[in-house]
Amino acid sequence: MDLKILITWLIPLFPLAGWFLWGIFGKYFKGLSGYIASGFVAASFILSVILFFIVAYSHGFTDTLYPWVYAGIFKAGVSADIDRLSVIMLVMVTGISTLVHVYSIGYMKGDKGFSRYFSFLNLFVFSMIMLVISNNLLLLYVFWEAVGFCSYILIGFWYERKSASDAGKKAFIVNRIGDFGFAVGIFLLFVTTKTLNYETVFAAIPSVPAYTTTIIALLLFAGAVGKSAQFPLYIWLPDAMEGPTPVSALIHAATMVTAGVYMIARFHVIFSYSPAASEVVLIIGTFTAFFAAFIALTQFDIKRIIAYSTISQLGYMFMAVGIGSYTAGIFHLISHAVFKGLLFLTAGSVMHGLSGELDLRKMGGLYSKMKTTAVTFIVGGLALSGIPPFSGFFSKDAVLADIYNKGFYFAWIIGEITALMTAFYIFRLIFLAFFGEPKPDQNKHAHESPQIMTIPMIILAVFAVIIGFLGIPPFNDSLFYNFLHTDFKNAYNFAPFVNNTPWYILSLISVFAGLLGIYAAYLLYIKKAFDPERIKSIFKPVYVLSYNKVYIDEIYNFLIVKPLLVFFDFLWKVIDVKVIDGAVNGIALAFAGFSAKARRIQNGMLMSYILTLSIGAAALLLYYFIR
Amino acid sequence: MDFFIKYLLSILIFFPVVSIFLLLPVNKKNEGILRNFSTFLSLVEFIFSLYLFIYFKQNTYKFQFVEKFNWIPSFGASYFLGIDGVSLFLILLTTLLTFISLLSSYRYIKEHVKEFVILMLLLETFMIGTFAALDVLLFYLFWEFMLIPMYFIIGMWGTGKRIYSAVKFVLYTLSGSLIMLFGLIYIFIMHYDQTGDFTFNILRLYNTHISNGFQLILFIALFLGFAIKIPLFPFHTWLPDAHTEAPTAGSVILAGVLLKFGVYGFFRFAIPLLPSAAFALSPFVIILGVIGILYGAFVSIVQKDLKRLVAFSSVSHMGFIMLGLFAMSAISVDGSILQLLNHGITTGALFLFVGMLYERMHTRQIKDFGGIAKKAPILTTFFMISVLASVGLPGLNGFIGEFLILIGSFHSYPVLTIIATSGIIFAAVYLLWMFQRVMFQDITNPAAESFEDMNLREIITILPLVALMFLIGFYPMPFLERIDPTVLHFLSMINHHHKAVYNAIKLKAGLSNA
Amino acid sequence: MHNMPSIYGINFLEKSMLSIIPETVIIIFAFMVLFLTFFEKLAKRKNSYYLSLIGICFSILYVLMLSGSNIYGFYGSVVFNSFDVFLFIAILFSGMFTVLMSKDYMENSEMPVPEYYSLILFGLSAMMFLVSSNNLIMVFLSIEFMSICAYILTGYIKGNTRSTEAALKYFILGAFASAFLLFGAVFIYASTGHLNLYAIHSFLQNISYADSISRSGGMGIKVYISVGLILFLVGLAFKMSLFPFHSWTPDAYDGAPTPITNFMATGIKIAAFAVFLRIYSLIYNFNIMNFNDILWLLAVFSMTFGNIAALLSSNIKRLLAYSSIAQAGYILVGIIGGGFYGYSGTLFYLFSYIFMTAGAFAVVVIFESSDIISLDIKRYSGIGYKYPFIAASMAFFLLSFAGIPLTSGFMGKFYVFSSAVKSGYNWLVVIALLNSAFAAFYYIKIIVKMYMPDEEPVSIIRGAIDDGLMITIIICLILTLLMGVYPQIFINFANNSADSLWRI
Amino acid sequence: MEALFYVFSFIAIFSALMVVTMRNPLTSALYLVLCFFALAGFYVILDMQFLAAMQILVYAGAIMVLVVLVIMLLNISRIKNIKSDLHQKIIGVLISLILFAEIVLYIINGAQKRPSGIFTHALIKRIGNTQVIGEFLFTGYILPFEIASILLFVAIIGAYLFAKKKF
Amino acid sequence: MDNYLIVASMIFCIGALGVIIRKNLIVIFMSLELMFNAANLGFVAASNRLNLISGDIFVIFVIVVAAAEAAIALGIAIAFYREKGTVDIDMANELKN
Fold first, then answer.
1. What does each C-alpha distance from C227 to B412, C336, D97 come to in angstroms?
2. Domains in chain C: how many in total?
């Protein structure tokens, strides 16, 4: 076998083996399983890097491991499509996974589900790798759901907590709603093109009628909406913070939730041939970005703030892919993976230090107690706010600049406002948690996390600083753009550039917005120039709306969940038991009634028997007579 | 060995009967021997059945392991056995599930053990016979008598309203199958009138030309028999009762094998015999199937009894299978057949787990459980795998079947398929919710504190099923490549017949016009 | 008319005598049994029992010896052909089971024994005469003979008001129905001028031939004969216990000694169906009127009424009585179906019907004791575990009644129903099938009681089970199973006998 | 002959009606005897003097004496008190009328049947009706004759068994 | 022949009427005898008109059967009377349903 093919299949094999090992023999390994699991993922990472260079210096390839489902004309194999997009994703996924694995050894120490945790984490890595490298939609869908399952099981990792298992279930079901659309999209695609292989699908798409393409694209996008937590299916992601924090870092920030963006980038042919669908992507992305940031403004749970920020940032990515700037989207995906992973890990470190405390109101002045954590957190925060030279600056600017230059001004304005809000809420978090007076009761035991946790944080922080430079020179000349763009050359350019505003002007505006947000946070929470309570009361309706997450959960509950449950109960208790089964039992009862009547004929009276007999005889004669 | 392979089907059919005779001399009191010996014999049967798989020739739709002897020449009935890719797997499923359910009932069945094992083995004979029979009368013989052992199993070892359920089960299915018998007799007579060939050989009956109007009537007759067995939506009410009250082994067999007979009947009899009617009525059947999918799922969501929930989920799953079968594209029919196996495996496993929970807690109410995961990690793991397979999680068996069904049906019935697809959401809702309430959260019931994990016997019981879930999920080709030629032949056959009838009628109409 | 020399010819008489040898043997044995009363010592219960069994076996032997022959004896009074062979064997089996069942029953009662057995034997011979009769006089006489034996046997339990009441009801209704039959015979005779069935047959054939040519002749005769046939049918339907003429069935079955109930349910019913089949095949279907329409109604009503009335019965004998009304309906379906296939099916069903009914009644006898409560199906609670073999057999017979495969009941039903489908009586078959699905309920009710008891099992057997009963059950079981699994031999047998119906 | 027919018909029908309507069973029995005599008269008209004699001997002589004997045996005063219900009477009359109407309608619709046999009035006169019947009875109908004898025997056993007080 | 048959059927129907409306066992039995005799009349008339003998033979057997039935009937009547003290058929009401 060719070396690169061997490498390709070894990459998923390691985590798969890990899952299997820890799942079955976990209890014999105990603490060791964490190290070995990390080692497995690290091995995958190293192989991914090798593969990256192989692909970077040669070209992509596809390979089929074995035929999987062949039924009639339907053919799908377990096969990989290795191109630049997938190797970038591979390196990102395995890289961050490795770090999170290492981090988890410290974070999960002493948990009784230690090996179970690593088992499922490995399974997740495996599924994510397969999702990234798959070369047909069926395989993609399989691992699309598989990562959802891993997310489900890891969110509900502490299953004794009702909230945790509820959150897991919610994540799974909401994802399923999106997957429903995704599945229908696949069906339609298959019916239209008679194939699910990327190459053949893409070859067929240009000749497909536009409205069909649009429907397919929208349905596929529905899957992305679910997976990548976009409006209106984002509701599971904040709840998903019930899981262990490294899981949030890996799955709900860096990798799985970005699968939707990856998917649209992967199917750029379909989306670019349907401007309408792309517009929908843009609109949903823009709205989600703003909306999530708006909610994040007033939350007090640090993980939830970061979760809303993730939703918001995913909105940026969708804005990018929605206007056809796939490289910008992927670039933001990568940089976001790094800094958001970092933010979550540091948040986890904070929790670890505060023995699980999440409420911002009970924190303060942690900077002195946990310096590494604080510094890395601030790095992450700066990256998120888009302050140069951190990675967020480059990637977010690439997105916003493209939006502006392609003429989507309204989206651009929203994006900038969102950037402002982003900077505000993340620095509100930083200022409240790490600065100000320490809260006496909570911070007594506050301590820095062990090195096994801090080292991955530091590594990520370093990357958060340097990875942005892949975007140099900014705009469509960058290293990253040039590297990746070859993969998107099939795309139909439905949104050409209409402006040629220089990048530095746009960047300046962005940086200004970011700084303004930070300054506002500074004024409010460090300088205490304004009383936050007063602002609260001024904007009371807005504040309440934001604080209660726009009541979306309640609306869903009231409008959908409750009526449906009542309806289902009605179906069971009335339709099933009363109507259908009632009819069946009613027939039986009717027969019993007939039986009682029939037995009355047989009343034991001889004269009535004689009568029956003679009536019978007369009736037979009569029958012939009237015939 | 040659003899063994040549008469393998007969050996499979009659080996359980022989086993019964081996078991008869055993004293009633010797429950241990009875249990072990019967389980061993069913294992031997299963191993025998594996020979079918080994010696099965793949790339052909032709019937294999054919045996044909005169039986009742006066009716044109013969002892005619043979299997194709579809019945092959259903027979394997039968032998496997019989073994598993015998193994699973060591703890559940406490009294009348001898009667129980004898009835189970008897049931096995009839189930295999039904799948192997290629003669309509022989088929019907096996099909109908099957009710009786099942009836005893539900009625004698069941719980709660067992007698009501057992009687309902028998009467419901009996009425359907008697109407079906009418249809079969009618076709038989019609074939005789046309060709003068007095035969119940299904392969020859396929050539009967029946006008469209008659086809519709006959199809409805056959439909009733098969649809009740499946059970399709408005005919399903026997199922929750029977499943709920039956002992674990009974539920496993009922869900795992008996429900398959309806679909098998459609596949082998109703559709090929009456292709035009099947084409004409397929939208209605599919609508019923789709209603069943949603209805079963909806009602499952609000169930309070574990077994009843699983039972209603069967209604939902069988709806998918009907959708696939009647969409009549190669992909969807392949999927349906595969899904038959999957449903047998997963639902069988689910019932086993419900049985294990019941054995330990003596309740089936969902609210009485909670936090079991803490006490029984192995059980939780396997249970979860089964639940996920039932949900249709990719990588497990349920997904492949459902996906093939849906993708195959989409072409002809896009709207209905979309509605059906939404069933996968609700499957996740009711199963995961159930799983959460039973296994997760904190322990509320003090009885759960002493919950034991699975023992070795139970693990052995479950392991083959879980292994199959993964095998079909990851590598379904050994199954699909055997099913596919049969299905393709099935489709070409009904298309051919359909066209022939259509042309004949057109010809007639043309002549009458002229 | 008759040619005198040939009448007195020796050959003729010899042949004629051959045709009634089986009956004669039975009658001789009946007299022998009866003479046992004269000798105190010999009148012991067992002697008459064994003697009657020997007589029946001899008779069977003779039937088998004569099986190939086709004799037209006593100036056309009787015929002996394969049809008779089949039904003789069926009837003799029924008699044998009755005798076998009786031993245990009689030992526990104070009734005179030899008379009892001799009456059974007389009844048997009457049934056989009825089957072989080929003359309206013979038909009437044998029916009356058979009925009189049955009346006496029904009221045999002295001092039991139920038994006397049953005899009374049976007698009055029976005589009433016989009067109709007789009056019907008047019209048949008046219109055709013949009493011999074959002669009537050929007469009608000529009429319908003439009818087909001229379209005018014979109309009046048709009117005449149809009123005769309808009245005749009333009398026969009474014996077959079809719906409006069924009313004696439950009461007589209930009150009679159980072995005699079996005798009535199997022997009389079969003999009645046999003669109906013969008359029907010879006379009824000459387009005189569409008698199938009438039979159709009778069949549907019988099935439905029998099943519905049986639904709530708690007395097992009454339940079986109602079920036998329903079964008569099913059998009639075969006759309606008609043709070779239908008649053969009817015969097959009749044959299988004996074994399931006799088996079921044998089980009833086992569990019966002097009090009437012993007939309540509640008493069958839990016998499945106490007496596994008997209960399993009972369950099997009940399943056979219900028409579940593997039993003769299924094959019989299948046979008659398919013949009806063949003749185009689709709705009839659908109704019959629905009926049998519905009927399964009350059969299953008994099985539920046996195997899934609510209360503790009631032990009711008075001691060791009698050998005769066990033999009956085993024979019935084997034959019910055999006819359910491999019916071909019996079908051939039935085919032969149905075939001989046409060979005039 | 015609006149005789009507006379006998009248007597037969009238006495038959009396049989079913009289309260006292003894009276009914006597009317029944009268009816039998009328029927015997019919048989004489119809050339069957032998049958007429049989009718009177067997029916009026044997059977009716038996009936009367039984009536005497039973408590006559209690028997007389058995009343029938009115609605039963109405239904009975209705049904009998319908039955009668139907049968008569059939008879009227049916055409006159031409003679098919050889035993004309003259022939029977020549041979003698007793001889004709005897010849037939002992040739063509010998088997029924024998069976009838056994039947009577069985009936005697039956009557004996029923009437016996105790075994 | 028609006239005879009409008379016969009239007697037959009167007999049937008697069976239906009377509750006295003895009278019912007498009514049955009437019905049988009606048939006899029919047979004799028919065989006379058709110039046949077989109908007359039938009559002889009917008479025999009637005698036998009379014996049985009276036996049953006596047995019934002994048990119930009456011959009212309404008292025969133990067997029902």
1. 62, 19, 16
2. 1
Domain count within chain E? 1
> Architecture of domain D1-111 in CATH?
Up-down Bundle (1.20)
Cis, peptide link before residue D144, omega less than 30° from 0: no
Q: Which chain D residues contact residue E77 at CB under 8 A?
A: 70, 74
The top-scoring range by mean pLDDT among B242-251, B446-455, C364-373 is B242-251
Q: What mean pLDDT value characterizes chain C?
A: 84
Give the three-class secondary structure for C196.
strand
Each residue's pLDDT tens digit, A256-288: 888 888 888 888 888 888 888 888 889 989 999
Q: Which two tokens stand for residue D80?
A: 């007389």
Q: What is the number of domains present in chain B? A: 1
C-beta of residue C189 within 8 angstroms of C-beta of residue C136: yes
* A interface test, pick of D91, D93, D103 with most A CB neighbours within 10 Å: D91
Q: How far apart are CA A221 and CA A186, in angstroms?
A: 11
Q: Tell me, yes or no, whether B374 lies in a domain.
A: yes
Indicate if the pLDDT at residue A374 is higher than 80.
yes
C465: left (phi over 0), alpha (psi -120 to 50) or beta: beta
Residue pair A284/A229 in contact (Cβ under 8 Å)? The answer is no
Task: Provide the terminal-to-terminal Cα distance of chain C, rounded to the nearest Å.
Answer: 19
- Using pLDDT thresholds of 50, 70 and 90, give the confidence band for residue C504: low
Q: Is residue E97 part of a domain?
A: no
Do residue E1 and residue C167 have CB atoms under 8 angstroms apart? no
As a whole number, mean pLDDT of residues E8-21 equals 88
* DSSP 8-state class, residue C458: P
Is the pLDDT at B513 greater than 50? The verdict is: no
> Do the domain assignments include residue B390?
yes
Please state whether the peptide bond connecting residue A389 to the residue before it is cis, i.e. omega within 30 degrees of 0.
yes
Query: CB of E73 within 8 Å of any CB in chain C?
Result: yes
Q: Are strands C78-80 and C71-73 parallel, antiparallel or unpaired?
A: antiparallel
State the Cα–Cα distance between residues B42 and B97, nearest whole angstrom: 10
Touch between E and B (at least 3 CB pairs under 8 Å): no
pLDDT digits (tens, 9 = 90+) for A235-252: 888 888 888 888 888 888
ipTM exceeding the 0.95 mark: no
Cα separation values, A69 from B61, B287, C422, C473, Å? 19, 27, 47, 58
CA distance C470 to C363: 9
Cβ neighbours of residue C430 under 8 Å, at least 6 residues apart? B179, B182
Chain C interface includes A571 (CB < 8 A): no
Residue closest to C199 by CA, chosen among C72, C325, C321, C11: C72
Which amino acid type is present at position A133? I
pLDDT tens sequence across B204-245 = 888 888 888 888 888 988 898 899 888 888 888 888 888 888
Q: Which domain holds residue B328?
A: 274-485
Among the listed residues E82, C305, C173, E17, the one whose alpha carbon sits nearest the alpha carbon of residue A606: C173
- Domain for residue E75, yes or no? yes
Domain extent for E7: 2-91
Six-digit token pair at B513? 């016009």
Whether C260 maps to a domain, the answer reads no
Is C75 in CB contact (< 8 Å) with chain E?
no
What proportion of chain D, given as a percentage, has pLDDT over 90?
A: 2
Indicate the pLDDT class of residue C474, thresholds 50, 70 and 90: very high
Name the DSSP letter for residue D114: P
Return the closest-CA partner of residue B91 out of B121, B42, B53. B53
User: Residue B512 has what pLDDT?
Assistant: 46
For residue B62, give Cα distances in angstroms to B58, B263, B482, C220: 10, 20, 11, 64
Distance of alpha carbon B429 from alpha carbon A177, whole angstroms? 10
